[in-house]
Amino acid sequence: LTGVYCSLYQPVEGRLGPQPVVLDHTSGFEGLLFVDDDLLGVIGHSNFSSIRATTCVYKGKWAYEVLISSQGLMQIGWCTLNCRFNQEEGVGDTPDSYAYDGNRVRKWNVTTTNYGKSWAAGDIVSCLVDLDEGTITFCLNGQSLGTAFTNIKMGPGVAYFPAISLSFKESVAFNFGSRPLRYPLIPQENLQDLLKAHKLLGYMKNVLSSSVSLQEDRLLEKDCSLWRLHGEPTVLITLAHIFNQFAPLMCKVYLVEDVLMNFLLGILEGGGSVDEHPLIQQLLDLFWLLMEDYEVNECLKQLMMSLLRAYRFSPIIPDLGFQIHYLRLTTAILHHEKSRKYLLNNFTFDVLRSVVFFYIKTPLRVKEAGLEELIPTTWWPTHFDKEGKDEREPADESADERLRRRAYERGCQRLKKRIEVVEELQVQILKLLLNNKDKTTGEASRYIFLNKFRKFLQENASNRGQHPTALCPPEYMVCFLHRLITAVRASWDEGNRKSPGSVSSEDDLASKANIIIDPAEIQTTSMDDLDEDEESGAAQRPFGAAAMGGALARPSWLSSPTLGRANRFLSTAAVSLMTPRRPLTQPEKVKVRTLAVEQRTEEDIEGSHGNDGLLLGRPLEEPDQPIADKSLLEIVDGIVMMYNLSVHQQLGKMVVVSDDVHEYAVALKDTEEKIARCPARRPDILEELQKSQKVFAEKLNHLSRRLAWINATIYSKDKMLDVYWLLCVCIRTIEHADNTGSLFAFCPEFYLNVAMNAYSALKNYFSPANSMEELPGYEETLTQLAAILAKHFADPRIVGTDIKDSLMQALASYVCYPQSLRAVERIPEEQRVAMMRNLLAPYEQRPWAQTNWILVRLWRGCGFGYRYTRLPHLLKTKPEDANLPSLQKPCPSLLLQRHMAELLSMDKDMAASFLNSVLNQLNWAFSEFIGMIQEIQQAAERPERNFVDTRQLKVCATCFDLSVSLLRVLEMTVTLVPEIFLDWSRPSAELLLRRLAQLLNQVLNRVTAEKNLFDRVVNLRLPGLESVDHYPILVAVTGILVRILVDGERQGISRAASVLLSDPCFQLHSIQHLLGEGGDSSSSSAAVTATTTATARPVIGSLGSSVAAPIPSAAGNTERKHFSLHPTSEEDLCPICYAHSISAIFKPCSHKSCKACINQHLMNNKDCFFCKATITGVEDYSKPATS
Fold it and tell me: What is the Cα gyration radius of the chain?
């Protein structure tokens, strides 16, 4: 390459654009990308995204470098301003853009040809453009790949920008010349600086490793690692001279990276712990002593940026050597207190928007991380139980499989150990940042960290959905969360060891969270304590104080109206994140003006005239205590918030890999079985099968290694314990907030969300690798969570609808799994009964579908033909997600059924209003369903293109499912407490029975009529209506009929039969259809009988006879009783139904109707039909005899 190429930083004629050159993240991009804080690194975040630099060139020779940090699909090169990119076309796909792609080893300029060599992670690509000759050349690691393009377009108005297009998750870092190019084709002046800096460093080393001996007047050699700053003035003066020359150079980025960083890394080369290298501390002291402040600041900032870049983009090798190397130097620098505070104040979370240092990137390709050497043997599950889940320890595992599994597990252990080294270093960095024992004056590191952390959370919480690039990516958050939990718990334990007054920390988790609470304590807590979750309170306080506080009544100011206001304001977000505290220097204690409780005024509480009021102080009874542990609690608060913001979703996303392994393993097993069955005469089929077997096996090899990495970094046992610890913290905080009596103490909403989400993560995301049962105190925690859900899903103190819904959903999925259902059964009896009472509240005033579903789950497995997990006609199809709560095996709770029966039989009014509301909702749901299938049927019969709105189908299926589940709740009630319908001494029993009969007849007539609407829609088999079928609804109806017509005592049976038969809608053929008798032999009825026969044949036989028998006696009597006064004229008929005679008169307005109509009306409404007057009583009415 002849001539000198300039980097884009050099102020030479021929370039246009700002200094420094960075990526144009405001207008020059297409697709979604994450751009680094220094605007030089970029990660693709959509299918194929492109971005260009801010500076262009139009004449001369120019070069820039790109560090490839993942070896995937990318096109790197030059483009003009006219190039228009999209998600399919990038750099090199348009006329005026030119690119090299080392992944496919090609060059691109609209067309493509082979060019160059293939690149790997860690390679450097140099992109050179010569605008005098009109050529573009690329180099790989300093080796020219030859001229790629000649005769490129030049002339007025044509200028070239550096540009790149990259696919999802690929990442690179650009160097436009702000640091030395790795393979420089650069002019001399920069080289002179480089040589000078190296020389000066050499002098410095020499000075540090020699000492002046006054006795012998000569210099002595000594080990420079033992050098101390307090020593000989001669040495210091010499060093000052060197620094005079050296300091200005240290403001240049490329010298910091090339000279200083490598020198410091060299000191740590020898291994050993970071503390064994005091020289770095001494050097940093020298920097602060002998350089101007602005020089040190710039130098440290650039040093950290270079370290960060190196940490982030260095390729992953099996022992993670690069990452460990850079993290150790970071730790060494942060050990130096002054530097640490400067960096915390001006760098961490400010320049550095995301928490890169705590992230361990996942290798996209197994090869580049050398996972093949670490895990030579791969393994995946090959034994599946009936539902397709992996078996943990299959009994029939062959010896070969066992060997492979063990070898794979050993490989995973090796990998885990290496990753743990990096994690340990990351935790050390955090511990340094959380240090509150700093020796110098000014704020302790922890407080600076706390303020920055608060701001970081605020940004991430407020920016959700607006600028995805400004956010910390969720995969970083996950790693940061785990390191932070480890560091906080370590600091906590350390604090406890030092202050003996606090509770000693045993090993079990709950006491690590150290949450021991005295209920009296909260009554004297100021607002500020409430928002900083209470965990510390009693834990760090000498015990006497708690006892003293207990004697006090609840202070009047806690229930004052101003606090009501404060509470409303607080509930918008965690207040601790919104109000910056006064910075407290270490020894200062918070002073509070102490007033007797009665004298506290509104101003004292809320603060006025610029003072902070009591809200920022402590209540009077609490003795002064250092505020240090509060800060840890605030960090815990932030951790909970982080989990809520993005960690939970990310944990859910990463499960995909293990799902993929599972799917491929099932496919591979299936293919192998097919190969075994393949007939010898069909070699063509066999060949195809073997091909797919090979593809599946390769994919599994790759995925199982990737899964090992993910299990070690995201789903390991320690991470599981962290999430479990978070769950315990949330549970304690909620329990605590709940203990305040009439009010719910302020507790951010996300605590409830995190408690529910953390539980579901532990249950669904961390299994098969780690199971929840192994967690310490697991059953107790489940019970505590069950108690919270049972108590608060209908808590009037919780008003937010979202949080109510999520509590209800959590409880609904909780009762679907045997372990968690047993936990609900373990909570104290009065709480269980209260929960059932809340579930049985009338359905009108609240969202009832979820609670109805909870009741159905408690019943499922006990009802008639109700032992199925999935509907019989759907068994052949594969469920989308077998882990869904609704697809769990039935696990009925007899205990909770007993509570329900007791409640309904004792409390007659509640029973009547509950059943009335269930019947109303059933009436509504089934009518809606019939209306919808009419519309669907009409749409399907139209001659033009059949198109039914999928949303409509979904709503239709939902109405059907609701009808079925409401029928099941009726069946449950009839079975558990038949007397509600059949004991006519109860006030509304007869009416309820009539309404039930009416609804059952309606349902039967609509579903069983021959060639009816229902049949036709079921036979259309529309996607989305799979669950709509004869079986579920007819079995539910049959369950109710069997219960009231077969299994009851004689009197009840005759009552039920007479009411059923006297209902105007009753049709005998629908009962025959249920029994599979009669001329009706449509396919659907055959299917129903086939499926019900197994479970219900004998019962149905007896049902037939019992319906037939009582007709003459029972039915005859009631018919006679009702129509004994055969009306002679229309005036004597009830004006509402025109079916019965007038038999009731209302007070006070004296309007009339039959008893059935008015009784049904009064269950929902107390106004008269006709005049809207409130009815106070109803009396019997008989027509006066005419003379």
Answer: 39
What pLDDT was estimated at residue 603? Answer: 35
Residue type, 311: Y
**Bigger pLDDT: 451 vs 943:** 451
CA atoms within 13 A on the CB side of 226: 5
Cβ count near 244 (within 10 Å):
12
Cα–Cα distance measured from residue 523 to residue 741, given in angstroms and rounded to the nearest whole number: 9
* Cβ(169)–Cβ(44) below 8 Å: yes
CA angle 836, 838, 844 (to 5 degrees): 130
Question: What is the CA angle 545-546-551, rounded to 5?
Answer: 95
pLDDT tens-place string over residues 956-981: 999 999 999 999 999 999 999 888 88
Cα 772-776-780 angle, rounded to 5 deg: 85
CA-to-CA distance for 643 and 729, rounded, in angstroms? 13
Buried b (16+ CB within 10 A) or exposed e, 1006-1032: bbbbeeeebbebbeeebebbeebbbbb
C-alpha closest to that of 652 among 705, 723, 702 = 723
Least Cα distance to 530 among 564, 488, 568, 575 occurs for 575
Q: Distance between CA atoms of 562 and 570, rounded to whole angstroms?
A: 12
The residues, any chain, with a CB within 8 Å of residue 812's CB and separated by 6 or more, are 850, 853, 854, 857, 885
| CA distances in angstroms from 311 to 172, 173, 317, 1108, listed in the order given | 13, 12, 12, 84
Number of neighbours of residue 175 by Cβ within 10 angstroms: 25
Query: In whole numbers, what is the pLDDT of the chain averaged over residues?
Result: 76
Contacts of 965 (CB under 8 A, 6+ apart): 852, 853, 856
Q: How many helices (H) and strands (E) does the chain have?
A: 42, 22
Q: Average pLDDT of 783-800?
A: 86
Give dist(CA 337, CA 327) in Å, integer.
Answer: 17
pLDDT score of 829: 92
Residue 124 · residue 183 · CB < 8 Å: yes
pLDDT in tens, 544-556: 222 222 222 333 3
Q: What is the DSSP letter of 505?
A: P
Digit-coded pLDDT (tens) for 850-909 = 888 889 888 988 888 888 887 777 777 766 666 677 778 888 889 999 999 999 999 888
Cα distances (angstroms) measured from residue 867 to each of 6, 462, 794, 854 = 78, 48, 29, 16
pLDDT at 521 over 60: no
Q: Is the pLDDT of residue 522 over 60?
A: no
pLDDT tens readout for residues 1154-1174: 877 887 787 777 888 888 888
Name the amino acid, one letter, at 505.
Answer: S
Largest CA distance in the chain: 151
CA 84-87-91 angle, to 5 degrees, is 50
In this structure, the chain runs to a length of: 1187
> What is the b/e burial string over 640-676, where b = at least 16 CB atoms within 10 angstroms of the residue's CB?
bbbbbbbbbebbeebbebbeebbebbbbbbebeeeee
C-alpha distances in angstroms, 97 versus 58, 101, 126, 136, 165? 14, 13, 16, 11, 11
Predicted confidence band at 498 (pLDDT cuts at 50, 70, 90)? low
Give the β-pairing of 61-68 and 171-175. antiparallel
Quote the pTM value. Answer: 0.73
Which secondary-structure segment (H or E) carries 209? none
Name 361's bridge partners.
Answer: none
